[in-house]
Amino acid sequence: MSWSSPACPGDASLSTNQKVGAHTQVLTLFDNDTRFLFAVDFDTDWDPYIEDSLTLGGGGIPRYWTWWRHCEEFANFSADHLPSLQEAKFLMNVSRATGLVHVNAFPHLTVADRARQDELWNAFQKVINSPAGAKALENPALAPLLELAAIA
Amino acid sequence: MANAPQKIKVDFEDLAKLGKTADVLAASNELREKRRGETEQALREYKFPSNYNPQMGLREGRVYELRMFFHVIPGHAQALRDELAKFKVAEQRNSLGAHIMTGIQSMSGTLFDNDTRYLHCAEFDTEWDPYIDDSVPTPKQQILYARWFQHLEETKQFNENNIPTSNDIKVAFNTNRITADVYIRTFGHSTVEVYQMMDLKKAFDKVLDDPDAAKALEHPALKPLLDLASA
Asked: Predicted ipTM?
């Protein structure tokens, strides 16, 4: 037996963040509201990540425009003249600073991996919280799962 | 006069050697409990500035965001780079023991504005005081911070001869911290929960590889799990 097919970008039930492989997004005004930091952690390479972000679900470039319009770097554009995909990629890239150090507790887990683990965790919780499920787990063949029930 | 609380050694690598999530968690809780007297005394006796605010930072699920903006001392950018490279490889920053004891999920450091500014970010899943107290419990961990603090205008009083205590680090971070305006996490689980999920996945994979176990999974009460498996 094997797992069911993993969560993937084509799955309509996924959030936009899951579709584009984004783990976190943090938006911060700093230096007395004169500067703006947009920070994101993502799974894929830059081009597919940013192209998916700017085109998949959630409003695409018009959605980004809601904050770009307040930034000096996008002053050459307007609601009637939005940047193209390539222009947007370029503008985000020229304003980007690469980290010197980046440590992640779970660097090997993609968003799709996390979604699958979440799914399994919820199913397991459902089983151990039902008396019949907890009893069924006592089958010796399921010992690896039963051991985890004590701490989950 | 009350006796001074006993100093307890904390070594994240020793914790990590326990291997199993549940064992590391139990040992972490035990260590924290043993250190409680020492930590509480340090908190009581430390003179926090009047504007100290431990309630900063947004939370998503179980996780808090932390970002701090500093100024680099002119001429110190390369030295800061070198220290941060060492900070990253310090094994105890990136071990099962450190993750479970401190709840740290991620850390990043970025120079910007032509190496004149430094942004330090982290995500963690405990409250502010225990997060710092557990992250830098002894000089062994505190010195790692002194080494990069010495290159920043806001924290240049610290160095290997003047190692910050955990409460000094709280104040240094808090003074230069800015709470985010928006914080989105696709998954808000704690570090311990993610490790437990990984343990569950391993156990489930083991069960699926065993024909007897796969048969046992067909019990109607286990349908939620069986639904995740395919023949």
From this structure: 0.86
